UniProtKB/TrEMBL annotation, chain B:
Coiled coil: none annotated. It is a multi-pass membrane protein. Keywords: Membrane, Transmembrane, Transmembrane helix, Transport. Signal peptide: none annotated. The keyword Transcription does not apply. Residues 64-274 form the ABC transmembrane type-1 domain. PROSITE patterns: ABC_TM1. This is ABC transporter permease subunit. Belongs to the binding-protein-dependent transport system permease family. The keyword Membrane applies. The chain crosses the membrane at residues 7-29, 35-53, 60-80, 100-127, 139-163, 183-205, 212-233, 253-277. GO terms for biological process: transmembrane transport. The lineage of its organism: Bacteria, Pseudomonadati, Pseudomonadota, Gammaproteobacteria, Alteromonadales. It comes from the Bacteria.
């Protein structure tokens, strides 16, 4: 039991550390941190551009991944080629096991040359490239959750709905989906959390320019990549302060999303008749 | 309208299978030709390199050893508290303390890995500022932060494995006069062992692939074999990242692809084991056979 307490304390220590380190930032130089300018040489440590980049990245990739995940989920339930479904499910679980660095490496030498030479888009490091790979990264998360939610519902309702004359597609669209709308929201939030928290793909692919993007093919820098870059390049202590603010924001974000998604996913037990 | 979802599903499935085959095929295509002895050991004689007699400069052997060490350290750090908190969570899932702690574990599981790295980094700053001025990024720190990262996975897996056991098991144990510790240690844990094992394997996979944490807490590009707990070290994911970003020659790029292939192989082996274990778990006495047993009890 002492061990349990220790691990609880560790978590608590993590929170305390980040809050303690970032408090001065919020109280003393608020204007400096929450601005768009990141020019360490001139003493501007604004991280808003990075916040915006992270949100943009996460929103685009989650929404696209969600649409694809719906398609995959419907395929898993509806298709009559069961071997293909088994293959797809195994592949999705396998995708969750692939290291993000490998995704990054493959994109660096497969996707970027395509953008650079095929579409003539400068260096190719862009929001678009990072979004493409992030979709692949969060797709298994959303898909497996969706599968866990909808497969029992399908077993429960498919026969009855079929007897009422629904086609399989109609069962999926009009019986299953409305029934678990809230839980799907929870699954998507989990994917969103994963997209916010990933470091390697934005770091390797997004170009890391501290600017507001004007289109999908512009370079951006995400908060996570920002933390990694600043620590790697070893700038002064004031730059570190902005890091703790960034870490704080990420922590708050992911904690809120976790709580919300846990709540949404838990609603199933209340709403679903046994 | 409804019919469209069928077409869309088929399109997506083909699309994803195609993309993944392309990606994995690309890694295989680039990585397989580099996969020979010199990828691991460079110009050094393999045996001497393995014993650590000669340093390896142009090979990924030190990175392999570094990854292995850091994963072993972090799993051994995290497994005992993880399993313990899982047991505690499963022991009384409805008490308020457990609920709060379960929530904390959930949040911990969702925290971005780079924050664990940042935590380790600020830990160093704190130690340096207070009572341990020579503190530096090291293997120990990296494995500690990785342990924080994988702890919730182990705890969740243990909790799930234990709470899926039938209630009769612990009740019967108690009726036979076993103490709670004996029930847990002799009855529940052996029965839940495959679930806990799969949690551990998941944790190993996470620890092996994570780059962000070790990048901030001690992995460097050229450290040789890990010299001790307080030394910096090399790791496979970091090698891939480093050489893919700043390769000087074709040979270094080949090293990146070789390392990626090795890492991919390792994770897919772990994945296969995981799948095998969970399939066995679904089939063993606590799957179908046990529900029959439970019915006997109930009757």
């Amino acid at each position: 039991m002492t061990l349990v307490v220790t691990s609880g304390l560790l978590l608590f220590a993590l929170f305390c550390f980040l809050i303690w380190f970032s408090l001065p930032v919020f109280f003393t130089e608020t204007t400096s941190v929450f601005s768009l300018k990141w020019q360490p040489e001139q003493g501007h440590f604004g991280i808003l551009a990075m916040v915006f980049g992270t949100l943009l990245l996460a929103f685009i990739s989650t929404s696209v991944a969600f649409i694809i995940a719906m398609g995959l989920n419907s395929f898993c339930l509806l298709s009559r080629r069961r071997w293909l479904v088994t293959l797809l499910r195994t592949l999705l679980r396998f995708m969750a096991a692939i290291p993000t660095v490998v995704y990054g490496l493959a994109a660096l030498f497969l996707l970027l040359p395509l953008l650079r030479n095929g579409l003539q888009l400068g260096s190719g490091y862009s929001l678009f490239a990072a979004v493409c790979m992030l979709i692949l990264l969060i797709l298994p998360v959303i898909c497996v959750m969706l599968d866990n939610i909808t497969a029992p519902l399908w077993q429960q309702y498919a026969l009855g709905a079929q007897a009422l004359g629904f086609s399989p597609e109609q069962i999926y669209m009009q019986v299953i989906l409305p029934h678990c709308r809230v839980n799907i929201g929870g699954a998507v939030l989990l994917g969103f959390n994963r997209a916010i928290g990933d470091t390697m793909l934005p770091l390797m692919l997004a170009g890391n320019a501290t600017q507001l993007p004007s289109g999908v093919f512009d370079a951006i820098r995400s908060l996570t990549a920002h933390i990694a870059l600043v620590i790697a390049t070893d700038q002064g202590s004031e730059a570190y302060n902005s890091l703790f603010a960034a870490g704080m924001l990420l922590l708050m974000c992911s904690a809120c999303i976790c709580l919300l998604s846990r709540y949404l996913m838990g609603l199933q037990r209340l709403g679903q008749p046994e | 309208m409804s019919r469209l979802i069928g077409y869309w599903g088929r399109l997506c499935a083909l699309f994803i299978i195609g993309i993944m085959l392309t990606l994995i095929g690309f890694i295989l295509f680039k990585g397989l030709p580099t996969l020979e002895l010199s990828l691991f050991f460079g110009d050094t004689a393999p045996l001497a390199a393995m014993m650590g007699l000669q340093p390896v400069w142009e090979g990924i052997w030190p990175a392999c050893v570094g990854t292995l060490t850091v994963v072993l350290c972090s799993v051994s750090l995290a497994s005992v508290p993880g399993v313990a908190s899982g047991i505690w969570l499963a022991s009384a899932p409805d008490k308020p303390a457990q609920k709060v702690f379960g929530l904390a574990v959930d949040i911990l599981a969702g925290i971005p890995s780079i924050l664990m790295g940042l935590f380790g980094f600020s830990l160093i700053l704190l130690l340096r500022g207070s009572f341990f001025p020579q503190a530096n990024a090291s293997l120990l720190l990296a494995s500690f932060c990785l342990a924080l990262l994988i702890l919730p996975y182990i705890a969740c897996a243990t909790q799930n494995a234990l709470s899926s056991l039938p209630k009769q098991l612990s009740v019967t144990g108690a009726a036979l006069g076993m103490t709670q510790w004996q029930v847990t240690y002799r009855l529940l844990l052996p029965q839940a062992s495959s679930g806990i094992m799969s949690g551990l394997m998941l944790a190993i996979g996470r620890a092996a692939e994570d780059t962000a944490v070790i990048m901030l807490t001690g992995a460097v590009a050229n450290a040789g074999l890990p010299g001790g707990l307080l030394q910096r070290f090399e790791a496979l994911p970091f090698t891939i990242f480093y050489y893919s970003a700043q390769y000087q020659s074709q040979q270094e790029l080949n090293m990146a692809f070789g390392a990626a292939l090795v890492l991919l192989t390792v994770t897919s082996i772990i994945f296969t084991l995981l799948a095998a274990v969970s399939r066995r778990r679904n089939r063993n006495i606590f799957g179908s056979a046990n529900s029959r047993k439970r019915n006997i009890y109930v009757r």
